Amino acid sequence: MAAAVMVGILNRVTTDVETVMDVSEEALATVLDVRAAEDDPGASALRVAITGSNMTDFTYALDLCLISEAEEGDAVYTRGDHDELTVIIPKDSIEKMTGATLDVPANSGNGGLVIRNPNTPNPLDGLDLDLSGELPEKIQAVLDQAINPALASHGGFAALVGVDGSKAIVTMGGGCQGCAASAMTLRDGISKMLVEALPEITEVIDATDHSAGENPFYT
């Protein structure tokens, strides 16, 4: 692509954020290796967009596209010692991806790429929760309307066992019972959502028997 054309695209679409998502040297090499198979590698960019969330982390779409396909408001910048790779972050993903890094897995035996993002989703965004009634009813409403729809994508669910003062006692079932990531799901997902939605809750207790279930982990 001619330099003048590239400059024109950058002037049209680049935001004030110089670098939204960084790219490690190892990830850069991986992407460039894949891009080499394109008909015109120099005209191709890596586009990374947030597509949703799984309660505790964002989900992403990574693909190669033409640099010319960048849209107004997108962040467009280059990475590499010689600006080998053009990165496009869609405008609606910029805020939630600022500070992230595209990297390779810590375990060298795992292939692919990972995105290490300091930002986490707020699953309550956009929800109009009906939080009427007593505390158990409010907790059940958050479980039904916000938490379980997110857990359902993993074949799991959370159920309210009871309330002890300001403490909510829950169990995790389906794919969440015995899952190795269940502790993180409870801490960073279920607990966070319940406390944010219902400030009167001070603690969420997991009463699940994780030695049982579909994939027992704690044995």
How is this structure best described in words?
The protein has 2 domains: 3-116, HesB-like domain (Hypothetical Protein Aq_1857, Chain: A, Sandwich), CATH 2.60.300.12; 135-206, GMP Synthetase, Chain A, domain 3 (2-Layer Sandwich). Helix content is 27%, strand content 27%. It contains 5 helices and 10 strands, in the order αβαββββαββαββαβ. A hairpin with a 4-residue loop joins strand 2 and strand 3. It is elongated, with a radius of gyration of 22 Å. The protein starts with a helix and ends in a 13-residue tail after the last strand. Mean pLDDT is 82; it is low at 1-12.
Topology:
Layout: H1 3-13, E1 21-23, H2 25-35, E2 44-53, E3 58-66, E4 75-79, E5 85-89, H3 94-97, E6 100-103, E7 114-116, H4 135-151, E8 156-164, E9 167-174, H5 182-197, E10 203-206
Helix pairs in contact: 4-5
The run of helices and strands is HEHEEEEHEEHEEHE
Number of domains: 2
Q: Which sequence of strands runs across the widest sheet? A: 3-2-5-4
Uncertain segments of ≥5 residues (pLDDT<50)?
A: 1-12
Rg of Cα set? 22 Å
* CATH topology value of the largest domain: Hypothetical Protein Aq_1857, Chain: A
- SSE-based structural type: alpha/beta
How helical, in percent, are the residues? 25-40%
Q: What summary fits the major beta sheet?
A: 4 strands, mixed
Q: What is the top-level CATH class of the largest domain?
A: Mainly Beta
First and last CA, distance? 58 Å
On the 0 to 100 scale, the average pLDDT is 82
- The CATH superfamily label of the largest domain reads HesB-like domain
Note the beta-strand portion.
25-35%
